[in-house]
Design a protein that fits this description.
Oligomer: heterodimer
Distance between the termini of chain A: 5 Å
Main location (chain A): membrane
Structural class of chain A: mainly alpha
Strand content of chain A: under 5%
Organism (chain A): Rhodovulum kholense
CATH topology of the largest domain in chain A: MetI-like fold
GO biological process, one term (chain A): transmembrane transport
Family (chain A): Belongs to the binding-protein-dependent transport system permease family.
Strand content of chain B: under 5%
Order of helices and strands of chain A: HHHHHHHHHHHHHH
Distance between the termini of chain B: 21 Å
CATH superfamily of the largest domain in chain A: MetI-like
Shape of chain B: elongated
Number of domains of chain A: 2
Number of helices of chain B: 12
CATH class of the largest domain in chain A: Mainly Alpha
Shape of chain A: globular
Membrane topology (chain A): Multi-pass membrane protein
Largest sheet of chain A: none
Number of helices of chain A: 14
Helix content of chain B: over 70%
Helix content of chain A: over 70%
CATH superfamily of chain B: MetI-like
CATH topology of chain B: MetI-like fold
Radius of gyration of chain A: 23 Å
Number of strands of chain A: 0
Chain lengths: ~325, ~300
């Protein structure tokens, strides 16, 4: 077990190294003068020189890489070209709203999607199944921001149950926080629910045909115990996998949702940085999100044995 | 089906064979409706210049943000442009981006995947690079690429393509890894066939069926990502209307003119829904084993 975890942890290193090389080359290999791209059309020669100097663009490529990699390894993500403050500080300031939103979304998604998928598989080929599958296909087809605006239109503008946009931290009271966070979380949850419900249903359908399910039913085990204890546990691995790989989708969704609902999280930070071509922030965000993705999927892989004791490393 | 001896058939035969229904099987009503909707949207978008009442770019400062009327079916936007004309014309570019991104990613993914699957020496490095690319969220990578390369149509297609390529590569590689153990491939190697010939004539046909399915999904997701890129301000420049940038421009006027988001959003969602449903149908037809799994 320990050996397996160590092996998996080590296997993430080449992935992160390649991501880092990619991020490094992304700017440098873009056709044209990187400094001119970042500074925009109206840049003065002095501004260009300042950017070149800041990013070390005057050195040969390999020297640039060594300095850059050294900084990253020491945890120095550089300073913003726009605000001149440290990038790690900017990210730390914005992390709270995003984390709250992401946690809420995952909780809502799993609580909704897993039962939906289980029931759809249990009542296979009935209208319940059809309803769940329709929702799942729909969730993939409507852009996140359109869902957001529909929810705003219904719940904030027509019904006036919640504010249209904005964010309040939970420290200001749980009521105001939830009122502003519920629509973004639901918006973000739509695609995740669609994804997880679909996978849960497929995985459950496979398990429900097994002999031990028939045996459990034959010996009179209650149906909900059969479904949630016997079947779901055995169906858990693909579901966990999709929660992990779907995490990239969640990060992308955060970027959009925060823009729709005007939430000052790292998604907004990223969009603003990209529009302002604030490259140190862009590269930090790519490294950070890729890192989170890798860690989440590592955790998912390792957690398999908790849900399915047959898997031993 | 065509799987029996793919290396003996021309690509055309493989293609037609793929979509012939098994005896007695019938297409359900769902795929038929989906195909009808998709055809309708494609035809309406492609022919848009023939019937739209206004130039989608013509501004009219005297009739800004008008409600729907006889003159303007869906009203006008903040520059007095006819929303109906813009939405219908915008569909052309959105669909072009979808198809373009699907073709480019399938082409690139196929080439890289064949190499990774066949040449063991290259496999490790290629797959590590693909794993790394998959770790970067698609939207983030795409907006970064557009921001650096400029908002042209080609740059948007490339930005959407790059995050999709690893998925295609994985798929092609897995098919090739299974197929290369088949006796006919071993025979071809033993007979001294050239490497390109083995790859193209014997291995590539096996990848066709899954690639068609994957291609439809990529097409749908590309249309979606274009909309998101535009929405975030990193899409095709606004001189070319697309469903995405019409919705993006509608953001600030959402409360007075929700139609600027809802109408393109509706067409786009219907279109993606139809493509995804057809993709599912194609998958079920091409691989009955998967159908059993999914129910």
């Amino acid at each position: 077990m320990f050996g397996y975890i160590l092996k998996r942890v080590l296997a993430t290193i080449p992935v992160m190294v390649i991501v880092a090389i990619f991020v490094f080359l992304l700017l440098r290999l873009t056709p044209g003068d990187p400094a001119a791209i970042l500074a925009g059309d109206a840049a003065t020669p002095a501004q260009l020189e300042r950017i070149r100097d800041r990013l070390g663009l005057n050195d040969p490529l390999h020297v640039q890489f060594v300095t850059w990699a050294g900084q990253i390894l020491r945890g120095d993500l550089g300073t913003s070209l726009i605000s001149n403050t440290s990038v790690s500080g900017m990210i730390a300031d914005r992390l709270g709203p995003t984390l709250n939103l992401a946690v809420m979304t995952i909780v809502i998604s799993v609580l909704l999607a897993v039962p939906m998928g289980v029931i759809a598989a249990w009542r296979h080929r009935t209208w319940v199944d059809f309803l769940v599958m329709s929702f799942s296909v729909l969730g993939f087809s409507v852009p996140v921001f359109v869902i957001g605006y529909i929810l705003i239109q219904i719940f904030a503008i027509e019904l006036r149950w919640v504010p249209v946009q904005g964010y309040k931290p939970p420290a200001d009271g749980i009521g105001p926080f939830l009122a502003r966070a519920i629509l973004p979380a639901l918006t973000l949850a739509t695609i995740y629910v669609a994804l997880i419900a679909r996978m849960t249903r497929a995985s459950m359908l496979e398990v429900l045909g097994e002999d031990y399910i028939r045996t459990a039913r034959a010996k009179g085990v209650r149906e909900n115990v059969v479904l949630f204890r016997h079947a779901l546990r055995n169906a858990a691995v693909p579901i966990l996998t999709i929660i992990g790989t779907g995490f990239a989708l969640l990060i992308s969704g955060v970027v959009v949702t925060e823009s729709v609902f005007n939430i000052p999280g790292i998604g907004r930070l990223t969009v603003d940085a990209i529009l302002a071509r604030d490259y140190p922030v862009i590269q930090a965000m790519i490294l950070l999100t890729a890192g989170i993705y890798v860690v989440v999927n590592l955790a998912v892989d390792i957690s398999y044995s908790l849900f399915d004791p047959r898997i031993r490393y | 089906m065509a799987k029996a001896s793919p290396s003996r058939q021309s690509a055309f035969h493989v293609l037609t064979g793929l979509f012939s229904l098994p005896a007695g099987a019938r297409l359900g009503i769902g795929p038929t409706i989906a195909a009808a909707i998709l055809l309708g949207i494609v035809a309406a978008s492609v022919c848009a210049p023939l019937y739209v009442p206004y130039d989608p770019l013509a501004m009219d400062s005297l009739s800004r943000l008008r409600p729907p009327s006889d003159a303007h079916l869906l009203g006008t936007d903040q520059y007095g442009r006819d929303i109906f004309s813009r939405v219908m014309t915008g569909g052309r570019v959105s669909l072009l981006i979808g198809v373009g991104a699907a073709l480019v990613s399938v082409g690139l993914g196929l080439a890289i995947g064949l190499v990774a699957g066949f040449f063991r020496a290259a496999d490790g490095l290629i797959m590590r690079i693909m794993d790394s690319l998959m770790a970067i969220p698609a939207i983030l990578l795409a907006i970064a690429l557009v921001a650096l390369n400029g908002p042209s149509l080609g740059s948007v297609i490339i930005a959407i393509t790059i995050p999709e390529v690893p998925r295609v590569v994985r798929l092609v590689r897995s098919v090739v890894l299974t197929a290369r153990e088949e006796p006919y491939v071993e025979a071809a190697i033993a007979l001294g066939s050239s490497m390109p010939k083995i790859l193209i004539q014997h291995l590539m046909p096996n990848t066709l069926a899954p690639l068609i399915v994957q291609g439809t999904y990529i097409c749908a997701s590309a249309i979606l990502i274009e909309a998101i890129l535009s929405f975030l301000g990193a899409g095709v420049s606004t001189e070319i209307p697309t469903w995405g940038n019409i919705m993006a421009e509608g953001r600030s006027y959402f409360q007075i003119k929700p139609g600027m988001i809802f109408w393109p959003g509706l067409l786009l969602s219907l279109c993606i829904l139809a493509i995804n449903l057809l993709g599912d149908t194609a998958r079920d037809l091409l691989d009955p084993r998967l159908k059993k799994r999914e129910g």
